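Problem: given the chain below (224 residues), write out its structure.
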Amino acid sequence: MLIFDADDTLWENNVIFERVIDEFLEWMTPPGGDRTAVRAVLDGIEAAHAETLGYGSKVFLHSLGECVQRLRGRAATAAETARIAGWATAFDGGRVELIQGVAETLAELARRHELLLLTKGDTEEQQRKVAVSGLTGHFRAVHVVAEKNVGTYEELIRSYDLVPSSVWMIGNSPKSDILPARAAGLNAVFIPNDHTWVLEHGELDPGDEKVLRLAAFGDLLRHF
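Solution.
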């Protein structure tokens, strides 16, 4: 059984958020100001909201609004709120940008392995991305969850009566894909993405032989 993350593993995702953040920082940083300091405020707000509100573009835009309020020391004006709302169009596309090698690699892996898709975030938003990806047919099932933690993986083990040592979790996020999967007894494949969200970073044990590190998605065919 191979379990795949979606965002930034199968298709590009965080790069879209980073483009909006770049515009936001340009707007909110005063002349001669420190963009890093503004980003730190936003990162703190996003981290807090991830704990209470979850993930996705709606939560992200809400975080931008709260950041404006925090930095300005007042409620956002109607014009500021409208500017933030305008960024929603960045996330409304009817397509996703598959990462190089994903389509052909999944097609080949599906011929000889059972595949699951495990993604976290806003259910409607994630289901839309899965639907337009054209990849659904490769997976036995698609699971959209609020959070990926040890309990999430343990639930999958119970639901499918899995033998953890024969299951691999494949993703780009140490925090959500690799560390909790390993804690639940699964093997893992770490495929870094240059645009991985800063809040998804984490330290992996370089001596953990149950974590396979690959440079590209297509490299999976050399191992599975």
